[in-house]
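User: For documentation purposes, I need each entry recorded in a consistent format: the amino acid sequence on its own, followed directly by the corresponding structure tokens. There are two entries in this batch. Please keep commentary to a minimum and don't merge the entries.

Assistant: Recorded as requested. Entry 1:
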Amino acid sequence: MKILKSFIFGIALVLVGCTTGQLYYLDKNGERKLACDVEFTGLPWVDKYAVEYSLSLCAKSVVKKGGTVKEVHLLEIDTSIPSPPCGAKWNHAIAKQMYRSDELTKKEYGYIVAHIDLGLAKANKCSPNKPSQSDS
């Protein structure tokens, strides 16, 4: 019985800690199609921003290719993120440490999580004495 309760609790925890989003668009022929289906599992207050970031990038890509999205607010979202430390690229450990030390907001942290998970992170090519030249 105790094992069953632990199993049910574990499943519930996974389901609660999962944030998802989908974006549909109309193609040039007016057909409705799924553009993106995203899911982030972890901390819901971070994941909601990760979903927002991912869907915004997706919407902007769809429109750039000639599609139409109903959720036009996604096109207006500023998806810029802070640069990682000089010589580094964003990874989960750096982002988490900077969030915990109050160097990132919840929103920035969520956007960076999505940025990393989407494979967009690149090294910040800067030196401590020069302005940032990030490719993030």
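Entry 2:
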Amino acid sequence: MAVNNLDRSRWYLGNVLWFGGYNSKTDRENKFGFLSSESGTELFFHKNELNQSNTPTDNAPVLFREGIGKNGKPTAFNVHLLDKPDEETSERLTEYLRDAIEGGIDFARWRYRDCVVNCLTQFFGDSAIRRLATSGIAVTKILPLFYKSRNYNSQFAVLAADESFGSLIAQQISPADMPSSFIDDNIDQFAVWVKNFFEATDCQGAGASPSDIINVLLDHISISAILYLAFYNYISSERILEHRRDDIEIFVRRSFTKNKMDILPFVRDAYQQNFSSREQYHEHPVISPFITAHLIKQKMFRKDFSFVNDIESNAELSSDPEYFILSKLLPLIGRNDEQSVLSIILHEIWQGVLLNKIPVSHPSIFKLFPQCNSLKIRFLNLKLSCEAFHWNAKQPDGTINKKFLCRSKVCHDPQVLADLSQDYSDFTIYDWLAHYGMTYLVAGEPSKRDFPIKLAGYFNRIRELHSRLHCRSCGVLMVPNMKYARIEASVWDAKSKRFVKKPFQAAYRLTVFKCASHSCEQFGIGHYINHCIGYKCSEIIDARDLSEKCAEGRFICASCGSCCTKHQEKFGNVNKGETEQVKYDRLYRDSPFFSS
């Protein structure tokens, strides 16, 4: 092909518009096509100008030289396909990039950036990048090409292979543009840079604020580098917690588990240099906000009952339902019979509810009493804890199929079985009870009679019936009916820091509630509030709304007509045509824990 005015001074980038295809005039496949250059010019190119045997596809990126063909039209020569390039193409692309960088290209706005970076990463390995790094072009001009690319860390390592942290800083490369792994490898120099940066800022006088680069860096560097800076107090604890609070909390939490966070050796060196004792480390302002809760859990696990004092003296934890309940419950176990434990803890829980120490939809309640998927699916509007129990389902052939039921439905992932193999930081109430020796009557087969299931059901009933538990006269939250039967229980005494015998007179029934406001006309009047025992009914039985009773003295459900186990023949008239969801919404939409 004759060539006129071929520009051999530089390479150009473009993409294939089309190539080949059947030509009806010649009755054969075309051996030519057209591509578009960076400037938008369309150029003809022939198959003979391709440096490879591959057939180019539409939109494929190409590197080429521009010229004029024999027909006097713009033509592309020496066309290199970048989607499957070779070493020669690598050299040409390096040459092109060198010219582009010297010409002041803005990589942030360059339409071919992702394509070229992908080629450099996927096909050429490190060779093209190394050519750029050794071509005399400043690293600071090359780096923008690779910013935020998938393999930026490895590309940076090639470019900065012979550079130190200090030399990169001297070239005005910000630490925020250095991979966190590079900063870790140069942590001493980085820390000095941070210290000098703040000292230089302080010299600017009062009111001068540090550059935003520090905030960017705190989000960018590794947790190991964060801890190093914190232990040497190179950056204020307040600023570190503002940016990396969640990471610090995870680090502290995992330091108490088997699955400890991978921390680089220089953090341990910094720890040994700056702390003379573990207590001093615990008091560090970056660590202290998270350490107390885990130290208390550690004491719980070791059955060191001084954790009760720790919780009571800590305003934040004493108002956390998880810690409140465990501080009241765990010291009772093993020293009192189960009925006494149940009576006392229900008394404590209700007092906590009355005093708003136990918001019954607090997330930590669900950590102690987790949800199961069965209830999540069935009750979308009101979060309820799993209260599954074991059920031997007899099959038609006489065999027994062991299942779990939760609210009369099969529960496929019961949350009520203890798993002591996990870290104690993740213990549910069932794990803590098993750890303290309170197990189910039949191992692995919880029943409605078992203490943990009663406790889970109690919280669910409070959530569901909460709006019903207020006095209709004065609006005050009613209290469960108290039976004045004294109980002497062994409890932990916070003052003497030992177990003592203490009398209680609060054995609560969970079905009769009364107003405790002396100024109310309903004061002291008990009202039976419960769920119907009819099969699959669960209508709310509220004595204030019902008057008809059976011969056994039990209220007759307005929904299914059932009343007591003696009159089971009445069971079965369920829902009166309502779907389960419609009925559920009707019963509980007044609860403050119900969400639309």
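Summary note for entry 2:
The radius of gyration is 37 Å.
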